[in-house]
Amino acid sequence: MTKKHESDVAFIKALAELLNENDLTELQVKREYGADDSLNVRVSRKNEVVSVAAAAPAPVAAAPAAAPASPAATPAPAAASDDPSDHPGAVPSPVVGTAYMAAEPGAAAFVSVGDKVSEGDTLMIVEAMKTMNHIPSPSSGTVKRILVADGDAVEFGQPLMIIE
């Protein structure tokens, strides 16, 4: 690998970190090296594609979903027969990582079942490659179900909670 390529890889990694740290969906940069030599980079993450990818991990998500949903047993039995990824209020994971319900160990959870949330409120954190990704509420409503537990591994597109 040449020096230029090594610096390009580092540059692209830095752009990806900027994307996550600033909660951006897309970043595009053109780097000029000379008259006929340039690097054009576009780093993006799209949450719209999530519903397509959610079909594969749904069977895996069904087993862990039963344990955290048990404390809220009243609304869960009716909704448990439905696939949570098909629910219009499902909040999917934008990345593969580890779910955390609070900002730090021992702190209060961001949300609990029954809490009212506004669009953009942090619901939880998903850590991916030592980057803490705050998961914002896509809409205002009430948290009906939390489908993952603190410290659970989550897949891309896996439903994390239901907001109605």
Question: What would you note in describing this structure?
Answer:
The protein is of the alpha+beta class. The protein folds into two domains: 3-44, no CATH class; 50-163, OB fold (Dihydrolipoamide Acetyltransferase, E2P) (Beta Barrel). Helix content is 24%, strand content 32%. It has helices at 3-21, 50-53, 58-69, 76-80, and strands at residues 26-34, 37-44, 90-92, 97-100, 116-117, 122-128, 131-136, 141-146, 153-154, 159-163. The strands form three sheets. A four-stranded antiparallel β-sheet has the order 3-10-8-5. It has a four-stranded antiparallel β-sheet with strand order 7-6-4-9. Pfam families: Biotin_lipoyl (PF00364).
Low-confidence stretches: 47-81
Q: How far is the N terminus from the C terminus?
A: 51 Å
**What is the name of the CATH topology of the largest domain?**
OB fold (Dihydrolipoamide Acetyltransferase, E2P)
Largest sheet: 4 strands, antiparallel
Q: Would you state the CATH class of the largest domain?
A: Mainly Beta
Based on the structure, what is the oligomeric state of the protein chains? single chain
Mean pLDDT, to the nearest integer, reads: 76
CATH H-level homologous superfamily name of the largest domain: RNA polymerase II/Efflux pump adaptor protein, barrel-sandwich hybrid domain
**Beta strand count:** 10
Walk across the major sheet and give the strand order.
3-10-8-5
Question: Do you know the CATH architecture of the largest domain?
Answer: Beta Barrel
Share of residues in helices: 10-25%
Structural shape: elongated
> In percent terms, what proportion of residues is strand?
25-35%
Tally of contiguous helical segments: 4
Secondary-structure-derived class = alpha+beta
What string gives the helices and strands in order? HEEHHHEEEEEEEE
Question: Compute the gyration radius: what is it?
Answer: 19 Å
The tally of domains stands at 2
